[in-house]
Amino acid sequence: MEENRKPLTLTEKVEANIRSQIDCGVYEPGNLIPSEHQLAEIHEVSRVTIRQALQKLVESGYLIKHKGSGTYVNPNRALSHSYKTGSFSENCRKKGIQVHTKILSIEEIPVPYDIDRFMPKSTKQITAIQRLRYTNGKPCLIEIDYLSNECQFLAQEIKDDSSIFELLQQHKIGPVVSFEEEFSITSATKEISQALDIPQKTPLLEVIEVLRDYNDGLLYINRQFIYTKRYKHRVQSSCL
Question: Which PROSITE patterns would you find in this protein's record (predicted)?
Answer without folding.
Answer: HTH_GNTR
